[in-house]
Amino acid sequence: MSYVCTESAKATKRLPISAKVVLEERVEGSVADVELLCRSNNLLDTPAKKNANRMKSLDRKFAIAPMMEWTDRHCRFFHRLLTRRALIHTEMITTGAVLHGDRARLLAYDPAEHPVALQLGGSDPRALAQCARIAADLGYDEINLNVGCPSDRVQEGRFGACLMAEPALVGDCVAAMKASVAVPVTVKCRIGIDDQDPEEALEAMTCAVEAAGVDALIVHARKAWLEGLSPRENRDIPPLDYDRVYRLKAAHSALAVMLNGGIVDLDQAVSHLGRVDGVMIGRAAYQEPWRLLAVDPLLYGESAPFASPKVAAEALVPYLERELRRGTRLHAITRHILGLFRGVPGARAFRRHLATEGVKPGADIATFRAALALVVDTDAPVAHTAAA
Q: Which of 70, 122, 130, 192 could tie 196 with a disulfide, CB 3.0–4.6 Å?
């Protein structure tokens, strides 16, 4: 499979054959069953067709990265309390899990999460198209394909970062999803893997997905070493190469390019926005979520949703009460908010109380309120750089 890559790729592209195939297969009941359960739990009340106008105008200036074991639906709801404007992502969910697993649990989300993107892991164009259609029918605003995860399990399944070696296949995957859904389809990738030349590898991937009609490319500005480094080491050891992503955007000016990797605060995020279309933050957003309260004022010129982290935490109480009534354990939600307070009296006591009392089987809303009472709300303006 080959692609023509020019400034106006859409006008000159040679689409993969999968883009010309109408994918009619559906797993019986796949959408209806999930939608019914989500609606019965008040987790989905906006049909996909009502989201069409919003989906066409997604703002990708700032996004929160998909993070395994972290960005579940509870985390996403919490993050949405802190910023109205950020594009948020699910954890990566494999096509096999969507098609054959507990879809009601895996794909459930709260309407408050919009705009929210589903990240898929897979490399079979038909399976990805099926999953994209299921997600779009459920109201997800965007579908993102993982071409960056370096874990052994992902490699064994022939998806994630190892797909950097197969740009034509990734193009087929994007084209198949684009042919199946009206929502945006994006790709998150690395600048290369192992001994690949980042200039050549990233260019080949970009040409392939741009020709297939991708709506945006999110680039983690590091290589992934599939041999010799763990997934954790791959997040830190390979050197960052922001300039490579800047050059990519300059060469593909019509393509929306977002930068990811090593961005630790919003000042740094702003510094990149003159060179790329958007930034994506991962660990800094999760481990220090107080930073997210500054996203809307700093990047969008809008007021923060809440005046302080403590007020935001208090706003989480109705959600906690609802989930506790459904049988969700307190710790399943509060584990995501341990870093909400920093540099204020009581922050450490808050974390300690939730880490010790919040994990107990009988932990309830009173446990959370007791932890919150330990924090002194100074009513200080929300900071966006590191606190003391």
A: 192
